[in-house]
Amino acid sequence: MERRSLLRAAAIGVGAAAFSGSLWRQAAAYPALPGPSPYGSLQSADANGIMLPAGFTSRVIARSTQTVSGTGYTWHQAPDGGACFADGSGWIYVSNAEVGSSAGGASAVKFNSSAAITGAYSILSGTNRNCAGGATPWNTWLSCEEVDTGYVYETDPWGASAAVQRPAMGRFNHEAAAADPVRKVIYLTEDKTDGCFYRFVPTTWGNLSSGTLQVLKEVSGVLSWANVPDPDGSPTPTRDQVSGAKLFNGGEGCHYRSDICYFTTKGDNRVWAYNASANTIAVVYDDNVAGAPLTGVDNITAAAVGDLYVAEDGGNLEICIITPGDVVAPFLRVTGQSSSEITGPAFNPAGNRLYFSSQRGTSGSSSGGITYEVTGPFRTSL
After folding, report:
1. How many CA atoms lie within 13 A of 353 on its CB side?
2. Which of these, 310, 303, 304, lies nearest to 287 by C-alpha position?
């Protein structure tokens, strides 16, 4: 409890209490603490080895190196970050391939209104370690390379248009991206122990071919954004170009909603909330509390009702929920896959199906990845 009080005091010290206009709680209630899940306790593992709350079921959507059911497409290795896109009465789930040596990229699987698979195909290839990314309001998928001087690629979830490299968004060890349509910027995380939190300001919203890369600074507790002089990141890495840049220990997933960009840092197992309206930052979750269930924080998404879902890279391979009432609890657990990590959580447009992957599955190798769907009574009101 003392740790909790210190974290709350630190958050308030940088002005994080001013979270008006958000569906989320006041920052004075951070960080979230362990408690009962709104879905109840986890049941015994199902036939797929997944422990779920009562009323929920799982199915396997795809397996790495195997043909996606009902299609002629072979699913990629090491599935990572993902997102869903509405497609008429159906939807599309896109997934990155975190594979090096120019064997990375991204794939898509298409569903009809009954959730039956109707197609699968590549939307990006020939890239390196495509880790996480983010969807744009104009329905493209930003696939980010997790290598030094890596690129962001803008891809078409329908596969009709060729992927486009977006160097103006900076070359660094990219992790994830999240679009803020209010301020018309794209937030970006960096997976380094001394990584930064960035935003890209396009010259024209909806066109990522040109714009300004900025990095978050903190001087005497005051946050500001500063232009990165050389987004190319060579010879000086982008994170080292601006004095006073605020450092984060291993930036991972990020997700924007209601004026706040939530992002995770794996080095200290934290979930952060950057309030873009108030220009403040707070710690939503820190695993340094008694009984903390969430470790190895990684990809993150949110349900329409406001619950955050955070996937583990490590720990006991759970996706944990963080509720607007500041409760953190396991939502599901994958068993028998201790050499894997959970990636790519994303809801379909209706919010009643959750997709995610176990990157290395039961084999512990990139060729053993498994992509799942979870269906059940996801809550639509608090």
Report:
1. 25
2. 310
Residue 311 three-state SS: strand
DSSP 169-209: G--B-EEEEEEETTTTEEEEEE-STTB-EEEEEEEETTEEE
Q: Of 290, 360, 250, 282, nearest to 27 (Cα)? A: 282
Question: For each of the chain's 382 residues, which pLDDT tens digit applies?
Answer: 333 333 333 333 333 333 333 333 444 468 999 999 999 999 999 999 999 999 999 999 999 999 999 999 999 999 999 999 999 999 999 999 999 999 999 999 999 999 999 999 999 999 999 999 999 999 999 999 999 999 999 999 999 999 999 999 999 999 999 999 999 999 999 999 999 999 999 999 999 999 999 999 999 999 999 999 999 999 999 999 999 999 999 999 999 999 999 999 999 999 999 999 999 999 999 999 889 999 999 999 999 999 999 999 999 999 999 999 999 999 999 999 999 999 999 999 999 999 999 999 999 999 999 999 999 999 988 8
Say which residues have a Cβ less than 8 Å from residue 9's Cβ, sequence separation at least 6. none
Q: 3-state DSSP: the chain helix, strand, coil percent, rounded to 5?
A: 5, 45, 45
| Farthest CA pair distance, the chain | 58
3-state secondary structure 318-362: EEEEECCCCEEEEEEEECCCCCCCEEEEEECCCCCEEEEEECCCC
Amino acid (1-letter code) at residue 115: A
Q: Alpha-carbon distance 187 to 256, whole Å?
A: 9
Task: Say how far apart CA 151 and CA 168 lie, in whole Å.
Answer: 9
Residue 177: both structure tokens together: 């991206």
Backbone angles phi, psi at 15, to 5 degrees: 80, 20
Q: Are 302 and 313 in contact (CB under 8 A)?
A: no
Query: Residue 20, Cα to own-chain centre: how many angstroms?
Result: 24
Q: Residue 351: left (phi > 0), alpha (psi -120 to 50), or beta?
A: left
Contact 50, 372 (CB under 8 A): yes
